[in-house]
């Protein structure tokens, strides 16, 4: 049970609908990236030559880095490596660190990694950046839903979570359009840099505004105070028992 001293009031910026809106936009950007990297404008195609000797240059990531089918498949799923490793780590850290700040850390990693994808120079550099994208996304994926469940009105929890998860197909579909347009009109690198710019305000907010606290998770200061109080109570209880025992012995004499 969380002690009363650990029950902090919500920060002034907070309203449940505002929190849902922020998380939905972040989730949408996450999945725009999933769609964008699979789009023809970003993923591209290899250079090809016909039997008559007419050749077309490669486009997108495949064309620039001359990727084979295996390497192209790795890029699309590399984020899962970071996601699977980092998700339980962030969930465990939430017991000792503020979960809202952890989301800020993860989104910072995500933003830097996405910018790195746009600045990559070969297959391995972009593959590593894609893995780090998964690491950054892990904090948000594992902690956002509990925040929504904590703060949604009791009768609307299911609807709010449904709204949050609707951003998955919506963001993926939007990503195909975004990647196709930006990749074909400008360059596939610009698509990644654009995603990083769109996400940048949210890690900044995660560090600058007063954080929320998940219900059932006491801040570290409160936990330390509670532990200290329990230790003092235990010592006082032991001293009291010693006094009673001594009085009993004297009385029996």
TrEMBL record:
Any one cellular-component term (Gene Ontology): membrane
Chain ranges passing through the membrane: 74-93, 100-117, 123-147, 159-178, 190-209
Subcellular location: Membrane
Topology class, membrane: Multi-pass membrane protein
A Gene Ontology molecular function term of the record: transmembrane transporter activity
Keyword tags: Membrane, Transmembrane, Transmembrane helix, Transport
Pfam families attached to this UniProt entry: MFS_1
Cell inner membrane found in the keyword field: no
Family: Belongs to the major facilitator superfamily. Spinster (TC 2.A.1.49) family.
Protein name: Major facilitator superfamily (MFS) profile domain-containing protein
């Amino acid at each position: 049970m969380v002690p009363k001293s650990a029950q902090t009031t919500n920060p002034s910026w907070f309203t449940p609908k505002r929190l849902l809106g922020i998380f939905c936009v972040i989730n949408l950007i996450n999945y725009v990236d999933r769609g964008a990297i699979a789009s023809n404008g970003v993923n591209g195609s290899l250079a090809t030559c016909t039997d008559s000797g007419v050749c077309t240059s490669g486009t997108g990531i495949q064309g620039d880095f001359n990727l084979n089918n295996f390497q192209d498949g790795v890029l699309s799923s590399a984020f899962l490596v970071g996601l699977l490793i980092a998700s339980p780590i962030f969930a465990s850290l939430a017991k000792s660190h503020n979960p809202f700040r952890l989301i800020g850390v993860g989104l910072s990693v995500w933003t830097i990694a996405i910018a790195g994808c746009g600045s990559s120079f070969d297959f391995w550099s972009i593959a590593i950046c894609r893995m780090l994208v998964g690491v950054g996304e892990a904090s948000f994926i594992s902690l956002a839903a509990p925040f929504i469940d904590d703060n949604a009105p009791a009768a609307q929890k299911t609807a709010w979570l449904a709204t949050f998860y609707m951003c998955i197909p919506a963001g993926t579909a939007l990503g195909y359009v975004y990647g196709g347009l930006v990749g074909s009109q400008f360059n596939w690198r610009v698509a990644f840099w654009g995603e990083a710019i769109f996400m940048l305000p949210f890690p900044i907010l995660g560090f600058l505004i007063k954080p929320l606290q998940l219900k059932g998770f006491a801040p570290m200061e409160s936990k330390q105070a509670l532990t200290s109080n329990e230790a003092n109570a235990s010592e006082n209880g032991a001293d009291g028992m010693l006094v009673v025992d001594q009085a009993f012995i004297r009385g029996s004499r």
